[in-house]
Structures are given as C-alpha cells and as structure tokens.
C-alpha cells in the first residue's frame, strides 16, 4: 500500500532528479503537500471570515503571515496553498472549519475542491525561469511584468495550468499547478525546456 | 495570432479561446412556433458587421461576450455576460 | 583567378576552411558564405535555372534570389550566398541533370518557343488520360529543386519560443538603428532584428555610407536586444511576428513595430541578363566589402541612378577596369563627377542591348550597348564592350512584404517610378528608404522619427514630425530592353521573359493576379522580389494602365524560405495517465489512446482475439476488474442541483432518492444525443455524475455556459482527474468487495442494483455504486486519485483467490456491445435522437423543460427513416465486416455499421447499425457491404444480445 503515486504524480520519475545546484532553473515537486480549493456561491465571504488577507482582485494571490496563499481564480473560486517551507496546517484548518460550518447547517459557504488529487504542484525557481517558460507558455512572465502575487491561468505545453509568482530566497519563482494525470508528460516537457539552462527537477 | 482581452484574464492569445457563436436571447420554447424554433436552433444570422458572440477562455472555462466586426475581424469590446442587462428570468 | 589574400568585413583570411562543391574541393576562409568562397575561387556557376537549365550565379549576395539555391546534406534549397562554409561541408547543386558543368537538360534552352507562357494549361490535358500516364511522371521527375531522402532522420532540435517587446525594429540599417535608439529612450524593451550577420544594412557595403556611430550607440544601449542572422518571416494580427533565428522560431508580440527593411535592388531586363557575372551593383559591393572578393577584371556598370557610381568607384578601388553605360542622358550626380575625374568612360544615354555568353553560357564575356531613343528603346548602331562583369544599378523596390502583411497597400508613383506603401496597421511604422527616404541623413532622421513615434505611442503621447519623402528616387523608370531573340528575363526563378508577360496580357489576363497564375510569375522561391516591379510595369504598359492601377500581387508569409522543421518545432503531445498506470504496465498492458488518456486495450501478448475472449470469459464467469479512472466526473452541488440536472439531461432527477443512481442522457439544443453517464445522488443538494471520457471537458464547459444564463444556485466542479475508479465485475465481485470493506454492506438487499454507497474500501474513503456496465454483478468504486494505485492493488490482492484478472478497453467494449449499450460518438452521430436509439425510456415526458426538448417534439413529428438496430451473423465472412461498412437496401445506402465484434458470450458476430426503419423489426434481414464490396446478410435482433432480462447485473 506504500504507493509512490500517493505522494505525487511525478513520484516515479524522482530518481531522474539532479542534486540542487546553483542554476537558472530549479524545479521542485510540491505535490505531496496539502492543498485545497473552494468554489461556489458565498465562498468569498466565507473565506474572508477565515483568513487574514484576501486577494485584491481575481488572478491575484494573498500571502498570509505564515506564507500560505489564498489565490483567487475568479468569480467565487479560490485555491489554498500552504507555505512549502513551513509546517502549515493552513489547508487542514480551512477544511475542518468548512466541515464544521457545513455540519452546523450553514448554506452558501461554497464547496471544497479536491485540489490535492486534481492538480500537481511544482515550484519552478531561478533567474532563467521566465525565458524557459517562454518556450512553453504564451503568457509574458518577465519579472517586471508578472509581479509577485500575480497569477495566470493559461496553457503550458498544451495543457491547462495555474501559474502564481512566488519567489524563493530572492530568486524568481513560480508555483505551477497542473493536471494531476498529465504529470508524466509534464515532467518530460519541463526537463527538456530546462536543459538549455542546465536546469531541471531537483 | 490575434489577441483577445478576456474580462477575467486580460489579453491572451486567441488560441486560448473558443467561439460559441452568435449571442441570442433564448426564446421561451413553449411560446415559440415550430418555424421560429427551427430558425433559432438551426439557422445562423452570419451578419456582416458588428456582432455579439459568446466566447470562452478555455483554461478557466470563463464565458463572456465579445463584440466583433465580422468584416474586419476586429474585436471591439469584451465583457461579462452579466453586463448584457437582460432579464435572468428566461426560464421560470 | 584564385585570390590569395582577401580583406572583408566578415572574413578572416588567416583561417582557411575546406569544403566541397559538386565533388570538388575548394578553400575558403572563416566568414565566407558558400557563394563568396566559390567566387573567390573563380567558380561562378551555382545552379541551373528551373525551366531552361541555364547556368546561374550570384545575383544579389543577399539571399533574395533562387540562383544560389544549393543542397547541403538532406537540406534542399539553401541560399549559397547566405549559408556560411564550415570545414568539410558538402555542397551540391540542384536542378541538374548530369553535372552542373554539363547539364543534359540545357537543350531546353533552345526549346523556349515550344513552351510559350501558359503552356502548362493547354498542353498537358489532351488527349484524356495523357496527364496521368505521360506528363505527370515526366514533369515530376523534372520539377522541384533538390532531392529529399524522406527516411533521413530529423536534422537537429527545433523549437519555438514566445517573446514580448515594447518595440520591435526589423532591419538594422541606418534607419533601423536610429529607430531602435530613439525607441529605447522610452525605457521600454526594444528588439532589433536583422537577417544579416552584421549590423548596418546598406551602410555595411555601400560607398559613402557609415553607420558605425549608430551601431556603437545601439550596442551600448542596455534595453536594446540585438538579433542578427534572424529573419522576421511574417507579420500576423496584433503585431505578432514570426522571427527565425537558427533552429528556433520566435513568436514575438510587439506593442509597436518599426519596419526598416530597406530596399531590394532590381535587375534590368536585356537579353541574357541572367548570365553568371551579371549581378546587382549592390552584390558586387557586398562581395568586395564584406568578403574581399573581386568580382571581375573588366566591368560594365549599367547606371540608372547615382548609386551606380559608388559601385564604379568601389570596382576601381578593387582594381577592376570599369566602363559605365549610363541610361540617363543627363546624369549629374556628385559621384558621377568623381568618376569622370578618375577617367572612366561613360556612355551617356545608352542601354545594354544584349549580354554575350562565354561558351556553355557559363559566364558573361561582353555586352553590346546601344543608344536609347526618346521613347527609351535601343536604337542605332550597337557597340560591343568585352567584359567579365556587369553590374546593374537601375533601381529598387521597397522591401514591402511585411508592411503588406500588416495591411499595407502598394501604390506606385509615376514621378519617382517607385512603389510606395500606405494603409498598414497603425501600430506599425515604416522607416527610412523603404518609405521614400533615400539620402543617408534623411534616412537616419526618418528612422529616428519613427522610433520616437513608436515610443510616443507606447505612452499615448504625440508623435514627432517625420521628415518628408525625397522628391526623387534612385529608380530609372524603364530599364526594360526587349530583344527580338528574347531570353530577357523578368523572373529568373521561373525563366519568364518579357514576351511571356506581354503575351499573358494579350491572352486576356489583364489583372496581375491572373497574370501571375497564368504565367507563374513571382511564384518561385524568390516570390517576386525581382519580378514584381518589371511585371507590374509591363502589364501596365500592355494593358494601357498606370503601374499604380496594376499594383502588385498580395504578399503573404513567409517572407523567405523556412523549413518545415522550424514550423513543426518541438512536438507537444499531451498524454494523461491514470494513477494505476504502473500497475497496468507491470501486467503487460497494450496501450491505446482514449482522448488523450492512455488506457490498457488488453493485457498480455499473443492472439489478440483470444486474449480479449479470455478477459471477457473471466469477467462473465468469475470476476474481472477494469480501470475506469478516465471516466469524466463532475460534482454538482447546491440547492438547485436537481433542477440543474433536470434541465441539462433528458431524464428526471428531482425525485431520485439519496443513495440511488440514475442513467443520464444529454441532448443538445437540436435534440441530438451528445453524452451519457450516471448520476449518483449523494445528498439532497449533491450529485456526483459521470460523463464520457472524451466528452467531459466539453460537457463541463457547456454546463457552465447554460448556467451563465440560468443563474441557478448550483456549483459544478470537474473532478475527473481527482478520482480514480475501478469497476469490479463478475459473479464473484461481491466476494471480493466483501473482503475489502466493513463500512459498506454488500449483500443485494443492502446494496442493490443502482444503489450508491460511501465508505472505506481497502481503508480508502470511497464512492461506490452498482450499475450495469458490462452486464454482470458489479461495483464501481471511486477513490481520490492519489489512492487509485493502492485501491487497484488491494482489489487485485483480495481477488487473487478467485482468479480475478484485469480486463482492458477492448473486452469492455465487447461486453458492453453484448448488452446493447451504445457508445455516444461511435453509435451516434450529429443527427441521432433518443428515439432512433430506442431510448425514449430515458426521456422524461412530463418535465417542462430540458435542453433539446422543444427540438425533439418537432423532430418526433416526422421521424427520420433510419433506426439503430442490433444485428447478428452466425460467422464472420472472409472479407471481414468493420465499423463504417454500409447497410445496402436495393441500390441505396440505408445506413452503416457503428459497432461490430465477434462475441465470445453469444458465440456470434454481433453489432449495431443504422438501417432503414422499415427493416428494424426483429428477424428482418439487412445487407451489409464489406470493404471489398461483397454483400452479406445479417439478421436483425434485439440489441440486448446477452442476458436480455438483466438478471445477472441485478443479482
């Protein structure tokens, strides 16, 4: 029952990774971390009652004090991501809070979405990330255009993806959430695109 | 590659969108004659000039309205369908 | 003629490089192109012309003409005047029968009179059949440039990249440099693109032009990115540019674009104007300045403008003896005065009447010149001038291609005899000589103004004034001198002569687009870069119109040749895997694609038919399992969930009890069946529904579209990838499930057919429901995707004692066909109604509305004359019957086979087909037409071939 896919859709490829070196593109698999989403009528108000900071506009994220993110996908749809380097119970707390409210009969508080199972989660960091992404994504991600907390819901190498600017140790960084079932394909695409910069999965 | 300004996602390559055809107020089926219903379902206006169309940004599945000149392929305006100002009670 | 020491801007004489051309070794130097290195070695013939196989050589040294196309390895049609040499490079000539030196097809040169313009259209079609039998094979052997080995491996890694710039400047001549500098002052990002290896444009070779100061400034500006050896090959909507550099296609979005693409020098038309040794003045200058190649010893410069004298002086400086043949009667350019002080002979008011070929037409050996009369035609006595080089400086066209792609229209000014461009996209500016600013200072000033305009438009500021166009142009208005014996080429690519254009007009093809199609002018590799101007002039003259009225033909991308590999780039073929992929692989799955999902077709190797039959038998008699993770899954939640399903699907869901499932059938607004699935009612306000694997994305999008209008209080979430699913089916399925769950009671009473239950299965929270599926007792178990593999392993382990084995999509299809289940998209088409499928049981009559209801009422008034029927044959005919085979009734097509298989469970060939409604009764016979044309009788029967009373699935 100890199945690697339970951790990440990239799990079976992790032996292909290279040790982290200073390079233009480092891709870190965060798929084993918790994540969740909420959607539907009343989600905005309910979430606002749960978290410290809400995003200012659709396609923006708000980072909480502990580094966790609430990303506004548009309308009444949000994504919740913990800080990858923290030990956050952010998502679990939200899920529990929603279930508690729901059990006590609350209506119009949106619905949770199984984002851990629908989406893989990568952190792509390094100075060459914008130019690397320009080979597989039609959205302008140059650092001065695509600022911190900015999001793009777009197509990467012909599959849907959610991109969120999140720098790492002062270096340019992107969260990329994409189709869980396309992990194997995405791995090959990213390794290939990063090779030019001596980058890849770490 | 044309650009299209998505009301939710901003300007994007038009390959991220699909066009769902002309916007029509759906007639109330039971109040519509067979002929008018057939016209509504099977015949397109194909107007030359500025038309209102349904478009969808596929990565987000976000639907909106675009006003496009079919003669020049110029996209004049895009906006959420809520802004159409029509009554939502098409059905009861 | 080998030149020992050469000095040129791009070459390094200290670094020799050896390569071969047509099997012979040549020595060039670092920085040489193939053509410059060959010229330095005295090899001037580079190719043979397309139709007449005439020897051809350097014309432009700018990659603008087909004369220099050669083959390198498996890459055809490489510009020899642009491609650099490298050690050991093997270069071959194209379009040669025999050798480049002795081409067996050169006799075609004398056949010209048998191939008048448009001869293709009248020669090859009579008598009937002759085209296929004789002409096509013959022409195919003769036509085309180069030879391709289609089995050769792909040559290198090609890919694409997007790019975004505030301002893109195409062309790094003086105007482009100035434009880039000015644009950069905005602080925005600027990209400067030039197809040449060096910056400077004409200033890098033309006499008296220096752009070094501008180059230095540009190179020192941080926000200007410089791409040389990069060609902008197309303009597309919203300033979307295709820029090719090396093996990468850049797809660039420019907020503002400045085109400073300069001018293309034009040849003059006289007899044998295509001989090697006859070239543009600019080509001679490029050879001298850029590559240190002296293009001849004795030159005649044909002068129609003052630039000719820069060419003459450059030639003199290179040690060439020069005679000028001046078309103008009174030329007073400043350079001309200098030339006279150098003591050159200038023949004023004269044209070249004919160029004289050396033996085999391999080079020019002289020209005859004649005085021009007042009408501009050759007259009087001719004089012969021996020479081995002719330089033509008679005029230019603007490099208008990108501007035209950007919506520009090409006009013609009779005063200046020059094309002009107007009406292009407002976010595109034209700069420098391509927009009528020829003098260097004016050109630079205009470039700067257009750069400033681009910058101003970024911030919506007012653009500065631009300097006026020059009043005169370097174009001689009529450098066309027809010769009675012809071979006065207008289009070198297609070997078209003056008379061909004249005759095309005489045949009635007055419009330029028609002239083009009739004569093929401008359709060769150089795409009319040199033919457009003389053609427009000739058509105007012979149709008594102005050149402006005639215009030029439309210019479309690509600007110059591009490789298919460039367009293909790196291939992206998304593929999805279920969480159980590794398990399938370990079990020996043979894969097939369902949408973009990889699914096991069957497991193991050997006779496919036998494997599938074994998988079917095990599921029917014992227990089987199949990965159904790819099935679409949607969570429909909210107070209006049931109402939403009622509107989207044909059946009724408002009264579906919690813990129950119901079939879903969806029609579109026209009443056509477009999807099916199962709805599970989890709660009053919560349905979990399935959709077809390939349909779910569209169905989901479609649902959102409808609810954008209905505004029901419901939320729809596509959770397809989030759930893995296993269908556990067969008489022993209950025993297997029993071992895996304590939460879910499995006996028929507690978990009956069509029930939905939740609970842990193998310790994983699961959604489980009983549906028909393959027609056996079965459970569909859905768990979060990350637990899919664990679920699969647990079921396999629990089932081991019963001999469980997985079955693939093929066995599933067989079993579902045995039960008569239709596959939407395979057994239905764009017209199928529920009635044609005998599925009116799934259409709720009393509902006030569902999508498609009104249309079905209408369509049911006059039923179509076809019906989906089940049919059977005792044995498969030898010819084989396949999906898509026709159903024949009398002499008519009555329908077609949609599904067919050899049924292991029924022991017959069974299938579904559209047939005539009148033949749809049980026991009727229909005729199927196999792919080889043979006809076979089949008997109509109930499509519920197996266990028609559904006893087995309801156990």
Automatic annotation (TrEMBL), chain A:
<dbReference type="InterPro" id="IPR027266">
    <property type="entry name" value="TrmE/GcvT-like"/>
</dbReference>
<protein>
    <submittedName>
        <fullName>N-methylglutamate dehydrogenase subunit D</fullName>
    </submittedName>
</protein>
UniProtKB/TrEMBL annotation, chain B:
<dbReference type="InterPro" id="IPR006279">
    <property type="entry name" value="SoxD"/>
</dbReference>
<protein>
    <submittedName>
        <fullName>N-methylglutamate dehydrogenase subunit B</fullName>
    </submittedName>
</protein>
<dbReference type="InterPro" id="IPR038561">
    <property type="entry name" value="SoxD_sf"/>
</dbReference>
<dbReference type="Pfam" id="PF04267">
    <property type="entry name" value="SoxD"/>
</dbReference>
<dbReference type="GO" id="GO:0046653">
    <property type="term" value="P:tetrahydrofolate metabolic process"/>
</dbReference>
<dbReference type="GO" id="GO:0008115">
    <property type="term" value="F:sarcosine oxidase activity"/>
</dbReference>
TrEMBL record, chain C:
<feature type="domain" description="GCVT N-terminal">
    <location>
        <begin position="580"/>
        <end position="847"/>
    </location>
</feature>
<dbReference type="Pfam" id="PF17806">
    <property type="entry name" value="SO_alpha_A3"/>
</dbReference>
<dbReference type="InterPro" id="IPR041854">
    <property type="entry name" value="BFD-like_2Fe2S-bd_dom_sf"/>
</dbReference>
<dbReference type="InterPro" id="IPR013977">
    <property type="entry name" value="GcvT_C"/>
</dbReference>
<comment type="similarity">
    <text>Belongs to the GcvT family.</text>
</comment>
<feature type="domain" description="SoxA A3">
    <location>
        <begin position="485"/>
        <end position="570"/>
    </location>
</feature>
<keyword id="KW-0560">Oxidoreductase</keyword>
<dbReference type="GO" id="GO:0016491">
    <property type="term" value="F:oxidoreductase activity"/>
</dbReference>
<dbReference type="InterPro" id="IPR042204">
    <property type="entry name" value="2Fe-2S-bd_N"/>
</dbReference>
<protein>
    <submittedName>
        <fullName>N-methylglutamate dehydrogenase subunit C</fullName>
    </submittedName>
</protein>
<dbReference type="Pfam" id="PF13510">
    <property type="entry name" value="Fer2_4"/>
</dbReference>
<dbReference type="InterPro" id="IPR029043">
    <property type="entry name" value="GcvT/YgfZ_C"/>
</dbReference>
<dbReference type="InterPro" id="IPR023753">
    <property type="entry name" value="FAD/NAD-binding_dom"/>
</dbReference>
<feature type="domain" description="FAD/NAD(P)-binding">
    <location>
        <begin position="165"/>
        <end position="410"/>
    </location>
</feature>
<dbReference type="Pfam" id="PF01571">
    <property type="entry name" value="GCV_T"/>
</dbReference>
């Amino acid at each position: 029952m100890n199945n690697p896919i339970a951790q990440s859709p990239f799990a079976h490829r992790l032996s292909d990774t290279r040790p982290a070196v200073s390079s233009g593109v480092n891709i870190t698999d965060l798929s084993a971390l918790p994540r969740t989403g909420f959607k539907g009528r009343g989600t905005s108000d309910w979430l606002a009652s749960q978290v410290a900071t809400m995003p200012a506009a659709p396609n923006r994220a708000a980072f909480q004090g502990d580094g966790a993110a609430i990303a506004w996908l548009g309308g009444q749809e949000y994504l919740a991501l913990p800080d990858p380097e923290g030990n956050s119970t952010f998502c679990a707390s939200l899920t529990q809070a929603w279930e508690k409210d729901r059990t006590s009969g609350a209506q119009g508080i949106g619905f949770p979405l199984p984002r851990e199972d629908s989406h893989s989660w990568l952190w792509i960091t390094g100075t060459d990330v914008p130019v690397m992404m320009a080979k597989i994504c039609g959205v302008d991600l140059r650092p001065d255009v695509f600022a911190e907390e900015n999001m793009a819901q777009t197509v990467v190498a012909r599959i849907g993806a959610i991109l969120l600017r999140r720098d790492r140790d002062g270096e340019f960084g992107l969260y990329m959430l994409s189709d869980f079932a396309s992990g194997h394909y995405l791995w090959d695409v990213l390794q290939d695109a990063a090779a030019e910069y001596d980058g890849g999965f770490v | 590659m044309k650009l299209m300004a998505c009301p939710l996602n901003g300007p994007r390559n038009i390959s991220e969108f699909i066009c769902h055809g002309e916007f029509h107020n759906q007639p109330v089926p039971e109040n519509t004659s067979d002929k008018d219903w057939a016209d509504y379902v099977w015949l397109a206006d194909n107007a030359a000039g500025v038309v209102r169309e349904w478009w969808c940004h596929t990565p987000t599945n976000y639907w909106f309205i675009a006003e496009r000149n079919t003669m020049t392929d110029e996209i004049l305006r895009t906006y959420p369908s809520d802004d159409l100002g029509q009554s939502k009670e098409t059905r009861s | 003629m080998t030149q020992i020491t050469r000095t040129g801007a791009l070459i390094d004489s200290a670094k020799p490089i050896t390569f071969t051309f047509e099997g012979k070794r040549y020595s060039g130097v670092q920085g040489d192109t193939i053509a410059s290195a060959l010229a330095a070695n005295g090899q001037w013939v580079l190719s043979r012309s397309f139709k007449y196989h005439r020897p051809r050589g350097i014309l432009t040294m700018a990659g603008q003409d087909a004369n220099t196309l050669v083959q390198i390895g498996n890459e055809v049609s490489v510009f020899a005047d642009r491609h650099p040499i490298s050690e050991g490079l093997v270069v071959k000539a194209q379009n040669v029968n025999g050798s480049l030196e002795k081409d067996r097809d050169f006799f075609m040169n004398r056949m010209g009179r048998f191939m008048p313009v448009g001869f293709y259209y009248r020669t090859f079609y009579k008598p009937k059949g002759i085209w296929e039998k004789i002409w096509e094979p013959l022409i195919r052997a003769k036509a085309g440039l180069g030879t391709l080995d289609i089995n050769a491996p792909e040559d290198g890694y090609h890919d694409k990249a997007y790019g975004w710039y505030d301002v893109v400047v195409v062309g790094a001549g003086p105007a482009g440099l100035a434009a880039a500098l000015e644009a950069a002052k905005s602080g925005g990002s600027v990209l400067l693109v030039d197809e040449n290896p060096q910056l400077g444009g004409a200033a890098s070779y033309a006499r008296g032009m220096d752009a070094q100061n501008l180059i230095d400034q540009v190179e020192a500006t941080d926000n200007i990115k410089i791409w040389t050896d990069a060609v902008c090959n197309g303009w597309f909507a919203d300033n979307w540019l295709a820029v090719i550099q090396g093996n990468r296609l850049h797809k660039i979005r420019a907020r503002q674009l400045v085109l400073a693409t300069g001018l293309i020098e034009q040849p003059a038309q006289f007899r044998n104007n295509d001989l090697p040794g006859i070239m543009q003045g600019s080509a001679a200058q490029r050879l001298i300045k850029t590559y240190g190649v002296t293009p001849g010893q004795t030159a005649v410069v044909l002068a129609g403008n003052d630039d000719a004298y820069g060419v003459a002086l450059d030639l003199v400086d290179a040690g060439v003896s020069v005679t000028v043949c001046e078309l103008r009667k009174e030329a007073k350019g400043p350079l001309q005065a200098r030339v006279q002080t150098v003591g050159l002979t200038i023949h004023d008011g004269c044209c070249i009447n004919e160029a004289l070929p050396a033996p085999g037409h391999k080079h020019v050996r002289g020209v005859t010149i004649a005085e021009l009369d007042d009408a501009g035609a050759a007259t009087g006595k001719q004089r012969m001038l021996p020479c081995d080089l002719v330089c033509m400086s008679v005029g230019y066209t603007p490099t208008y291609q990108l501007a035209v792609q950007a919506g520009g229209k090409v006009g013609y000014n009779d005063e200046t005899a020059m094309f002009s461009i107007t009406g292009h996209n407002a976010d595109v500016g034209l700069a420098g000589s391509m927009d009528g600013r020829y003098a260097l200072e004016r050109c630079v000033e205009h470039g700067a103004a257009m750069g400033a305009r681009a910058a101003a438009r970024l911030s919506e500021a007012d653009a500065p004034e631009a300097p006026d166009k020059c009043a005169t142009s370097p174009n001689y208005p009529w450098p066309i001198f027809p010769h009675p014996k012809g071979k006065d080429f207008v289009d070198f690519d297609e070997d078209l002569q003056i008379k061909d254009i004249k005759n095309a007009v005489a045949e009635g093809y007055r419009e330029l687009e028609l002239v083009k199609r009739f004569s093929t002018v401008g359709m060769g590799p150089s795409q009319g870069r040199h033919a457009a101007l003389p053609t427009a002039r000739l058509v105007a003259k012979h149709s008594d119109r102005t050149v402006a009225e005639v215009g030029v033909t439309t210019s479309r991308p690509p600007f110059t040749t591009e490789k298919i590999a460039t367009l293909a780039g790196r291939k992206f073929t998304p593929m999805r895997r279920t969480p159980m992929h590794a398990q399938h692989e370990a079990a020996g799955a043979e894969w097939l694609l369902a949408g973009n999902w990889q699914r096991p077709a069957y497991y193991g190797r050997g006779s496919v038919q036998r494997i599938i039959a074994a998988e079917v038998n095990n599921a029917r008699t014992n227990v089987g399992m199949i990965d159904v993770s790819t099935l679409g899954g949607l969570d429909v939640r909210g107070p209006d969930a049931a109402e939403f399903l009622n509107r989207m699907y044909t059946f009724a869901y408002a009264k579906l009890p919690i813990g129950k499932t119901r079939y879903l059938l969806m029609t579109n607004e026209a009443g056509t069946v477009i999807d099916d699935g199962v709805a599970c009612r989890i709660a009053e306000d919560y349905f979990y529904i399935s959709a077809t694997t390939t349909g779910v994305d569209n169905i989901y999008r479609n649902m959102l579209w409808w609810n954008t209008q209905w505004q029901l209080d419901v939320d729809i979430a596509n959770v397809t990838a989030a759930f893995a699913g296993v269908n556990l089916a067969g008489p022993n399925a209950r025993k297997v499930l029993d071992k895996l769950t304590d939460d879910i009671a499995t006996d028929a009473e507690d978990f009956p057919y069509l029930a939905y239950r939740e609970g842990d299965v193998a310790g994983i929270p699961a959604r489980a429901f009983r549906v028909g599926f393959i027609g056996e007792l079965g459970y569909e178990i859905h768990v979060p995707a990350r637990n899919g593999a664990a679920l699969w392993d647990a079921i396999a382990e629990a089932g081991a004692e019963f001999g469980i084995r997985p079955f693939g999509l093929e066995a599933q299809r067989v079993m579902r066909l045995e039960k008569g289940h239709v596959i939407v998209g395979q057994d239905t088409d764009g017209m199928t109604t529920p009635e044609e499928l005998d599925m009116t049981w799934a259409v709720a009559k009393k509902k006030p509305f569902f999508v498609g209801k009104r249309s079905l009422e209408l369509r049911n008034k006059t039923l179509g004359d076809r019906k989906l029927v089940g049919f059977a044959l005792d044995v498969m005919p030898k010819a084989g019957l396949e999906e898509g085979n026709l159903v024949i009734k009398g002499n008519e097509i009555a329908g077609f086979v949609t599904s067919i298989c050899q049924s292991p469970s029924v022991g017959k060939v069974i299938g579904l087909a559209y047939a005539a409604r009148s033949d749809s009764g049980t026991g009727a016979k229909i005729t199927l037409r196999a792919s080889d044309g043979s006809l076979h009788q089949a008997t109509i029967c109930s499509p519920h071939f197996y266990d028609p009373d559904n006893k087995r699935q309801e156990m």
